[in-house]
Structures are given as structure tokens and as C-alpha cells.
Amino acid sequence: MKFRKVIILLLLLSLWGGTMLFADSASQKVRVIINGIEQDEGGLVADGRTYLPLRELATSMQAIVEWDNPNKRATVYKPNVHMFLFRNNTVFGNVTKGYQGSFKVFAQIDNLKTDIVAVKVSIFDPGGKEKVIQTGNVNPTNDNFWYATEDIEYKFESSGKYPIRFFIKRTASDDWTPVSEKIISSL
């Protein structure tokens, strides 16, 4: 009787192990690296196709994802957003550590294929702390428009990279989605 239980247990474990090996060979995990940064969510290869996590890819590529749950459809929008930084009508860029002064951000947005309600421009210190430069409600009537901030007074207290990010909101209830980034280096 004991021998029979051991045989049944061994058969069940063999069947389970074979199933797991088959499932592992049917789909393989893929590491996803974007601009040298490995993403938290990897992809899968199944039946000769590679499947990647759309939301994470869109975020890394600074694109907007619209999810239509009833139709099970994802739409990705990638507007072109070009930012220019100015101080006293001259181009503004890298600064020395401890620099304090004012600058403004000028953004050109085109290829906007979805409606939006608001934009936001922020600067982040090297530690990731955000300072909002300006937000504004917008209602563009076509796929391109310009957006300029007022002058902002800012002190670059430490050395490092200070990203300036341009965000879009599709609807009032949506989260802010970053769609462009410009870096100021403080040396």
C-alpha cells in the first residue's frame, strides 16, 4: 500500500514537472532595456512573437496611452514637444553649481492627435524633488500650438542633472503624462 502511494506521488510530480518545462519552453521571458535602463516589467516571446508591456514602453518613450476597456483597445499618442529655455532672450542651458537666476520655458507642440485639457512644466532637482514651473488649461483647436511659461526664479543648489519636463493631461481626471524632457546640467 505504501509503495503504491509513493508510485502515484512520483507520477504526479513527474507530470507536474513536465508541464512546467513545457510551459516554460512555450513562452520565454525577455529583458527590456530602453536607453540603457532595464525596465521593471520584462516581455515575453511566445509563438515567435515578442510581447512587451505597453504602458511601461509608452512611459519610457514619453507617449500617452489611452485604454478603451469595452473595446479592449489601446491607443498610443506621441506628440512632438520641443522645449527651449531662455534667460533674457538668450538661450539658457548648463549652469554652475549654486547659480541662482530666472529663466523661462518655451514649448512647441505638434502632431498632437488627441484632445487635451491642461499642460504642466516642472523642474526636478538631482534628487527627484519637483518644483512646478507653471500649469495651464489649454484647448488647442488643431494638432499644433505653442506654450510659454512666465520667468521662474530658481537656484541650482547642487551638481547634477536637472530635468525640465513637459506634461499633458487628456482629461481633468487623468494623471499627468510626461511627453518631453530637457536637461540642465549643473557643474
UniProtKB/TrEMBL annotation:
InterPro entries: Cu_amine_oxidase-like_N, Mao_N_sf. It holds the Pfam family Cu_amine_oxidN1. Residues 37-88 form the Copper amine oxidase-like N-terminal domain. It comes from the Bacteria. This is Copper amine oxidase-like protein. It comes from Paenibacillus prosopidis.
